[in-house]
Write a structure and sequence with these properties.
2 domains, Rossmann fold, globular, protein-lysine N-methyltransferase activity, single chain, transferase, S-adenosyl-L-methionine, Alpha-Beta Plaits, alpha/beta, 32% strand, SAM-dependent_MTases_sf, methyltransferase
Amino acid sequence: MRKFRVFVFSVSPLEKELLEEELFSLGCLGIEEISEKEFKAYFPDEVSLPKEIEEKAVNSYILEDRNWNEEWKKYFKPVKVSERIFVVPSWMKDEFQIPEGAIVIYIYPGKAFGTGTHETTKLSMRLIEEVLKPGDSFLDVGIGSGILSILAKKLGATRVVGCDVEDVKEEVEFNSSLNGVSGIEVVLGSVDKVDGNFDVVVANIEKHLLEPLLPFIKERALGWIVLSGILKSQREDFLNFLKSLGLKVVKELEEREWKAFLCRK
């Protein structure tokens, strides 16, 4: 059975951002945010980190792989995202009582990010609901499970395209079928591989991965840009970066440690 080595770090918000970037350069498989200052970094169990990095960890341990989908089922319950948007695990499809006028999205927790439980996903969905109009075109940068694209379809978007550096097409198609929607185009690669322009462009990606993509996102956008995945501690630095690109922030939302921004060119 595959094993992982998990390092737990507790540092200042500024050092946290820099440390996360360095950890990814050293082969980090993923980051789990615990609080504004504390996070877990996942590596293959055979990893050997530089001494000065390993000494910053307050704890480390070996984690055995497990059936993560079954683990999710223990904790993944229906989520009320807004007054009319609900995210429901697929195995509860027959028992969930749909409120009148609600938009329900059924999701199976596979490998890709996006179950509707994370703050950044909920913030993205609220802003999409606010600005997307029937007939709009929609681009989902880092489509993951397809949850945001499925929402766009249910809100009346016509052309819906999602791109991802991971091959998530099968997962997006499965979740689409659960929701009775079709026609979501999945592009393997980053935003620079996508053709055309879109009324609404969304990216729910961590700051260090999002910023290099923003010039391409701006090029693809005709109007609204929804950006999520930014920690509160990163707000000022991120706003300065948006300003340098000529993007105007129209609205900000936050939940716990996370921020989301609604922008226009």
